[in-house]
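pasting for ref
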Amino acid sequence: MIFLRSLLFSAGMLVTVIIYGALVPLVAVLPFERRYAFTRHWARLNLRWLELTCGVHYRVIGRENLPDHPVVVLSKHQSTWETLVFQELFPPLVWVMKRELLWLPFFGWGLAMGRPIAIDRGAGRRAMEQMLSQGKQRLDDGLWVVIFPEGTRMRPGERGRYRPGGALLAVHAGVPVLPVAHNAGELWGKKQFLKHAGTITVAIGEPIKTAGRDASEVLKDAQDWIENTQAGILPAARGRASGTSTNN
């Protein structure tokens, strides 16, 4: 049944990618707010489809820590799932991503509408300068910026090297860092087709101030909070009652 449920979800998601992707040329001429609402609707549709077909729900700890101003979100990256749920949980946001993602048919077209910061990872210093410049511009425009500091999806319990770009951007732009931990990889793992029923926990920390601080100190505070929080929530996803209400 897990395989069949996962297959049904994947088929439905593929259909939505094709349909929404085909509409991108029409939506692309609209203002950013309308374009973002379009992609957010796609994300919410697939989250509800995931709940219905696979029994994957989520709960939020620390919702009161969400500020009313732009921040740089530093988060664990374990799954495709968080790229969907962040669009539901947070105000309008942009992603720092490798530019190759924009070349994907349909899916990449949708990404391109969202003013992403698409960098060439092989460009070294120029890529960092691009991220700092475009990132500050997005933050000045009132958008949140999401960065996965480990640079790739990690399996539950794994820790990659935290890269300094997100902390540097926050210090450069004068905005706080918002640390986020979650255990999505327990139910929808890295490069895994099967989606297991249960309840994912998303934990949002208090914003980390950056004014007058060195980026390395900010990054250490964010890393310590994320990894310590991960240790507490990782075992608790699979097997929880799948009827838990979304947005608890």
